[in-house]
Amino acid sequence: MTEIIDTFIAPPCHDEIEIIYQDEYLVLINKPSGLLSLSGKNPQNLDSVHHRLVQIFPECTLVHRLDFGTSGLMVVARNKAINAALSQQFSQRTVTKIYQALLCGHLTDDKGVIDAAIAKDPAQFPRMSLCEINGKPARSHYQVIERLYHPLDNGTLLPVTRVQLIPETGRTHQLRIHCQQLGHPILGCDLYGGQIPEHASRLMLHASELHFVHPISQERVNTHCASPF
Prior knowledge:
catalytic activity, acting on RNA; RluA family pseudouridine synthase; PsdUridine_synth_RluA-like_CS; PsdUridine_synth_RsuA/RluA; 3 helices; RNA binding
């Protein structure tokens, strides 16, 4: 068995967490890019969404996570019972998550579906891999918003496509590896071929919409958060 060694040290994140909505049961936030969702085992990776929010909401726990480089909407439970109720919605796939991303190159098709199983790959940690034999089923939908050109520091223009991504499943790195499989990795993605770092200041992936049922009121919560890129 391959031992997983995590050597990643997150650089300081000076951006604040934006609280979009809060009540006595849950909090909706806009996570900045470059902030961990949960603190790491390494004490240098203490800063995170959870570490910051627990100072304000002592009993809060994360229901789901966003990758370090991904910005956007997260729902945070303020007690264990709410966490269990929200987690059930996520596991039953009744929560709708919609992302915006900039993909490298111009996509040929205006929309499509990526169906490719994803497996852990301890030998290449933290990368995941596509594997139909050992992987868990994963399915993502994409819709082209616009095809444009992203200016680089050297003055050249990089063709990119702004897309809306809707994952049916919630596998680790799902959208990043599925876009690589599509042949158009997410701009700024260091793990799955999204150009060299100077082409983008961050991972161009943002959780722009989150739709779920409030565990107490049973009302539909429809949250939107505009993309910063």
